[in-house]
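Predict the holo structure. Ligand: zinc ion.
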Amino acid sequence: MLGGLKRWKDEPKMGSDLAFACRCGQLRGLLRDIEPAKVNCSACCCAGCQQYARRFGYEDILLDEHNATTVTQIAPSAFEITQGKEHLACLQQTSKGAYRWYAACCRTPLVNTLWTPSVPFVGVLMHACVDAQSLEHPLPFYTGPVRALVNGKFPRKQAKALRATLWPLITMIARLSVIMMGWMWRGEHKRSPFFLPKTKEPILPVEKLFLK
Ligand SMILES: [Zn+2]
Ligand SMILES: [Zn+2]
């Protein structure tokens, strides 16, 4: 999963529109204009991501050998649902946890966001909702490689090899900040399919699992 940081051969000069869908196909959409320069790929080992993958029976699909979930952060405006929006649902596992948006028709994980659109990225769980087999190139061709492995504890040597140390995290945050400034410059953060532009509230009620 953790490819080299070298630029991919034939790295695209233009973005691609990638199709995504839930497992049963009722909710569909497009990830617009995806190219390595405009997105950020990270992998998260946190307990919340693991719990979520297991809750939906997606551990084999979402968790790698280090129990990490690969998340591709894209601009909010780049995530477009073209069909079946009525099946979109959202849950939150802890009071500070991510909003986890999924297709309720067949319980397919789609996207993680923060609980506020102020930090605007939309983290797509590509492994769950993009059919990599149907793409012309491997997924990292479009998303770039995983730039840092976060929230994991590994022995020092292994951590370095996995990019789970502080330095890759710092450089990734710096890089993502620059990318997000580009989205904000172009107003792409305002066109979120998940939050109402005026109130900044989520577009639908979020199921709060921690209150139960
Ligand atoms: Zn479905
Ligand atoms: Zn996580």
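Residues 16-211 form a domain with the Metal Binding Protein, Guanine Nucleotide Exchange Factor; Chain A fold (CATH 2.170.150.70). The chain has a mean pLDDT of 92.
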